Amino acid sequence: MRIAMIGGGYVGLVSAACFAEFGIEVAVVENSPERLSALQDGRIPIYEPGLDTLVASNMQAGRLSFGDDIAAAVRGAEAVFIAVGTPPRNGDGAADMQYVHAAAKQIAQALTGYAVIVTKSTVPTGTSRRIAGIIRETRPDADFDVASNPEFLREGSAIGDFMRPDRVIIGLDLDAPDRGARAESIMRRVYRPLSLIEAPLLFTGLETAELTKYASNSFLAMKISFINEMADLCDKLGANVHDLARGMGLDNRIGKKFLHPGPGYGGSCFPKDTLALSRIGQEAGSPCRLVETTVQLNDARKIGMAGRIIAACNGDIAGKTIAVLGLTFKPETDDMRESPSIPILHRLSEAGATLRVFDPVGHDTARPMLPPETIYCTDALDAATGADALVVLTEWNIFRAMSPTAIKKVMAGKIVVDLRNIFDPQAMKEAGMTYQSIGRPEKIRHT
Known about the structure:
2 domains; 45% helix; 447 residues; Rossmann fold; 19 helices; alpha/beta
């Protein structure tokens, strides 16, 4: 079986490599000369554990190829996946669909036989039907069907998510049952390896599949914002947010995931998708008030965390050195998009602090987004050396293993603001540090 993947970004590259691992021949189309050159040379332009090995093995096996000729890629493909970017549109937060529409037009011009045109990008409801309209306008004689197949990949564990998914959602045109059946047959063949391990394949209408992606991400974002508010309440009342989250998560109706307090969510999905769903609801005349509020809470939280750091330093950080551990929006990725570190570090810099930072993989992606005076260090202890205060922004595992005594030894001050709750408060206290975390009393019960 042969398929084409239009777009070699995060979603397109991970999906293409995993489909190739299924034994499918995959042709990836990438129009960025720099990214294409890297991929053709076997260099992975993003950080995702295990992806380099997966790409290399499937390129060597001849199942995975990269190019910029869309006609060559589409020729003979039974399914053509659209995996281009849908960034927020300036001004209103709605998804910018120009790349999706351009891809649809190019696919129409390249079609030589029947194919299912599958939307992998996160797109507003109605996009699959608009893609069908664009193809018909461009090529009235084209033989095709459309499908929606949203991705649910977590950065840092994307390969596992693809290979062992909670579910695969495939939207079909239920208004044309015969054509929908033809598209369903091909999509079942594409995902047959997952059917063999009994991964749930859920077939729905086009609109339902498109909306499900936004609804899922927005619900998880609301869950994060909820536990962040509970952490703030715990601070006021002397409760322990981790015990609270455990007590909530043991209820199977709630679940334990995404109940970890922090400085706010970021990344390529939650900020973009909550904004887009808010806009979709407004345009449909059915506002999503909870989602709109979640967006506002998250933006305010990031700024509030900068204020918390300044307050921990007695309200004045002018001329002080702040060590920052972690820059990316989460561990196991180099993604800086909408990372809480961006507004937090800009606020600290504006307040007069010198910033010494360390992230295991995020320095290159962080540099264009952070204050130009930021000092990038070789490791965590290097960042802490001579610092008046230390701040944890990303919960990389290597930070969890740091000894409070070792931190105290190299710092000039003794203030630690742990916005990910990775350190033991008692160990910090015993080391002589002035320690603050989120939603945890000074003395906590160890379980």
